[in-house]
Structure formats: C-alpha cells, structure tokens
Amino acid sequence: MALNYIWLAFFFVAFLIGAIKLVFLGDTQVFPDMMNSTFSSAKTAFEISLGLTGVLAFWLGIMKIGERGGIINTFSRWLSPFFCKLFPDIPKNHPVYGNIFMNFAANMLGLDNAATPLGLKAMEGLQSLNPKKDTASNPMIMFLVLNTSGLCLIPVGVMVYRAQCGAAQPTDIFIPILLATTIATLVGIIVTALVQHINLLDRTLILGLGAILLFLSVVVWGFSQMDRETMGKVASTSANVLLFTVIIGFLWSGFRRKINVYNAFVDGAKEGFQTAVRIIPFLVAMLVGIGVFRASGAMDWLVDGMRWGVGVLGLPTDWVDALPTALMKPLSGSGSRGMMVDEMMTYGADSFVGHLCCLLQGSTDTTFYILAVYFGSVNISKTRHAVGCGLAADFAGTLAAILMAYLFFS
Description:
Blueprint: H1 2-25, H2 30-69, H3 71-86, H4 96-108, H5 112-128, H6 138-148, H7 156-164, H8 174-195, H9 203-224, H10 228-256, H11 261-295, H12 298-312, H13 323-328, H14 333-347, H15 352-363, H16 367-377, H17 386-409
C-alpha cells in the first residue's frame, strides 16, 4: 500500500510543480520533458530487466545445485551454535533453522527475489512455534531484523545494475558494501538482543560477533593503507575471486553428491528467468514515476532543500544527491533500485554519487516491505518492536554506506 501512495505521489507532485513552473515561471518545456521521460525511462527499465535475466537465471541455478548438493545444510550445521544463541526460543536442531539459513544464504549472495520465498517458508516454521498467532514472537522479530539489515556478501544485483549503467569496474563496490552491511547487521543484532534480553555476553555470541568485528577492522585498516587506485584493484579482484570460488564450491558439492548437476542448474535457472520477468512491470512503473518526478524539477527542489539544511549544519553536502535511494530503501526494493539506476544514469555510474547510491542500495534491505510480506503471510497484526529495531539497522547501514563512500571513492 505504501508503494502505491509513493508511486502516485511521484506523478501528482510532478504535475503540481510542472504547473507552477509553467504558469508562474513561463517554463513551456517542462511538460514535454516530463512526457519524453516516460518513454525513455520505460525503455531503460526494460533494457535493464533484460540484462538481469541471464544473471538471475545463472545464480538461482547455482543456488539450486548448492541446495541439492548439501552445501546449504553444511553451512547450517556450522552456524547452528551461533543461531541457537540468537534464537533461544527455537528448539535445538529444529528444521526451521535450515529454512532460516537458506534465506540468509540467498540474501548474502545478493539474490533478493530468491530470498523472499525462502523467508516465507522460514516464517511459516516460526509461526508454528509461536504461542500467540497474531503477535510477532521474539524469533520472528530477530529473523526480520537480520533480513532488514541486509547482510550481503555478494551483491550480484547491484553489480549487474552498475554494469548495465556503464561502470568501468562494476565490482568495485563489493568491499564497501560488505563493510556497510556488516555494520548494519551488527547494530540490528545488538539493538534487538538488548530489547529481547538476549545475553550478549554469552561466550558463543561474543566469539561470533567478535570475529565479525575483527574481520571488519582488518579490512578497514588494510584498505585505509591503500591509495584509491589500489583500493579499486584489490576490491575488484577480491570480489571476482570470491564469486568464482562460490561457483566452483557449489558445483563441487553437487558433483560429490553425485546429483545431476546440469538438471539442478536448469531447474534453478527456470526460477531465475521467471523472477526476472516478474520484476519488469515493477521496474518500469518505478523508473517512469521517478523519471517524471525528476523531469518536473521536483527532485532538484527536494535535494537542494536537503543540501541547504546540511550546509547550514556545516557538514559535507556532496552525498545528498544519493539520499533519495536511502529514503526509498526502507519502503520499496524496486523503488530504491529505480532511484539507484536513475542516479547512476544522471550522475554517472563511476561518480561519487553513482558509487554511493549503490552502497546505500546494498547496505540494508526493505524494512516495511519485509514486515508487510512476511508478517502478512502468517497473519501477524501486532509487530511489537520489529519496526524500531529494523529502522535502527537501516539508519546504521545508511551512515556506514556514506562513510565507506568517502573512504573508497571520494
């Protein structure tokens, strides 16, 4: 419902500002520009969706191999001690842990659309353990916050969008997104654990969170010693090595289990193709709405107002142009993707704003969308502290993304 109002607002606000510019400023070009933007934005949306089809088909095929090859279950066993501390109300070795991890695995690989059905399956399992069927349980809220924090190890979708928009090194945002989303996840875990009275001093949690912090510190320190050119090369190389290692690892798991790797890949690829087709109308709708909004001058007025306010506070203002992506992200994944693509097309994929909007897109997930879809699927009407904890993770991820953009791309 929120997306409906946002999309309508783009058109109505654009019409209002266009009318003001025509009547009071004598701008006779504003409405032709708005109409031209509808055609160009629709074309851009379709071309981007077409480019995504092959990538989604490939990665969902690889995920299917990993699922049938048992590598997902292996990861689940490794992470079970840590998960048991985060979800103390779930019985040990309960099957829902497998669904939770598969959802996390899809998120970590940047496969947002693949993560959703896995998340819904996990939510059904959590609801079966929930004593109050209309009220979100603590495990449900922790699960949702971890989803909204958007821990993403391989932001495939963002990299593909960068490639579609002409980025020289589409993978150069890999390390910065990894750092920003790690910070968002840590903040989400800590805030939710404090609210739910989970013992953060537990040895397993301390070791797990400490390992994450140590990794984060080492990466930040290492990249702080490099110049920008070296940063780009190392980040790009690391991303591509890890991506190919994941592919080989999943293929090997299927070969070792003696499954039909080819058939498993094809089954997953079919799901990827269907996913790519489903997002076309959503991306067209959002890019056209955003294009009209920007062509009317409304986006410039909004951003200029924010820039003025930030300048009054004495803070740097060059990050403000990417802020629309951050504002849209908690509300709509397709909306924030549209903002990201529009900003890359406007400012350039390799500009500071072009990089920052990608970091903002990859650092967190769509809080309100996830709440609506996941809770709605099991008829939860009382969300308790889910919104507050989710937005805390979003805010931390946004700040982290801005800091990483200055560290890597300023």
